[in-house]
Design brief:
Layout (H helix, E strand, L loop, with lengths): L5 E10 L2 E11 L4 E5 L6 H8 L7 E6 L2 E2 L5 H6 L2 E4 L11 H5 L6 E3 L6 E3 L1 H14 L16 H15 L3 E5 L7 H16 L3 E5 L3 H7 L2 E6 L2 E7 L5 H9 L3 H4 L6 H10 L21
Parallel strand pairs: 3-10, 3-11, 6-9, 9-10
Antiparallel strand pairs: 1-2, 1-4, 4-5, 7-8, 11-12
Helix pairs in contact: 5-6
Bound molecules: adenosine-5'-diphosphate (ADP) and magnesium ion.
Magnesium ion (MG) binds next to helix 1.
């Protein structure tokens, strides 16, 4: 397989006493939909945060096109073509959908003398309506603030914004969670289409049938580590759930001629190593920029 577009190697991230990522690996490839799955608290959102420049890792490496990279913030990641739909969507609630689509990169029309920049609102509106239509969303009035839209429409605004600008990798953290059946199908079609453009799409989802229907590959995170990377065509819901929960560890135990790995697998499934929050997070531990 070609070199990954974006890769995490041994990434560590702590929040106070909680070690959310304990040497996590991850890889996204061009033209591929990779699902990132794992139980609640496995570290999925934290990994997305680190790979999209929102969280500074405490250790490990991030590689973009095979070269180590350090994102100083989400704008660095965006400049590198890495777009993200966060689980909380992070939309500007008081702005309308087209304004949200272009937030921070408004289309500017050259003014007279080519110096004075003017926001090209009609072009923004036209592009936005088209981007939403692709996701099966009809905005009756594109000028209403995002706060007045339904949860599903808001989610579609966030997805449209990310896929419109991604040219390398797009992270979608639970993009279909608030959607109805029709919009969900449209978002998944869009996910496929974006990958077919050669972009690496990372889909975080709890919905196993959805994962198996749209993903090419599945990476499983458990207790802050990657525990499996499976081709979607060769796996099953049972295997995915087993990897997520650790219940398949016995079947995964390597043969006795690999004693070191065996010890590692056993250590990993010891209950005291489970990642439980040990203390309330202190506000100062937050590194969300
Ligand atoms: N900002 C934060 N402050 C403190 N702990 C956090 C923070 N974000 C995540 N965690 C903890 O890190 C672990 C991984 O969380 P998260 O990445 O959100 O998992 P997932 O997205 O897989 O459900 C959890 O134990 C969670 O409580
Ligand atoms: Mg999460």
């Amino acid at each position: 397989m070609a070199e990954p577009l974006l890769e995490a190697r041994g990434v560590i991230k702590r929040f106070g006493h909680v070690q959310a990522l304990q040497g996590a690996d991850f890889a996204a490839y061009a033209g591929e939909v990779v699902a990132l799955i794992g139980d609640n608290g496995a570290g999925k959102s934290t990994l997305v945060g680190v790979l999209s420049g929102v969280l500074a890792p405490d250790g490990g490496e991030i590689l973009l096109d095979g070269a180590p990279v350090r994102f100083g913030g989400p704008q660095d990641a965006r400049r590198a073509g890495v777009e993200t739909v966060y689980q909380d969507l992070s939309l500007a609630q008081d702005l309308d959908a087209p304004a949200n689509l272009y937030l921070g990169r408004e289309l500017v029309r050259k003014g007279v003398l080519g110096r004075l920049g003017v926001l090209d609102r009609s072009a923004m509106r036209r592009d936005a309506v088209r981007a939403f239509a692709e996701l099966g969303v009809t905005l009756k009035d594109p000028t209403v603030p995002v706060a007045a839209l339904s949860g599903g429409q808001r989610q579609s605004v966030a997805v449209a914004r990310a896929v419109a600008f991604a040219n390398r990798v797009v992270f979608l953290d639970e993009p279909t969670a608030a959607l109805g059946v029709v919009q969900r199908a449209r978002v998944l079609e869009t996910v496929r289409r974006v990958a077919d453009r050669g972009i690496g799409v990372v889909l975080i989802s709890h919905n196993m049938p959805e994962v198996l229907s749209v993903a090419d590959r599945v990476e499983v995170l458990r207790l802050g580590r990657r525990v499996a990377s499976l081709r979607a065509a060769d796996t099953s819901i049972e295997e995915l759930v087993g990897a997520m929960t650790g219940s398949l560890d016995r079947a995964d135990l390597p043969s006795p001629q690999e004693p070191e790995m065996q010890a590692e697998v056993r250590a990993e499934s010891r209950p005291e190593q489970r990642l439980e929050p040990q203390a309330e997070p202190q506000p100062s531990d937050e590194e969300v920029r």
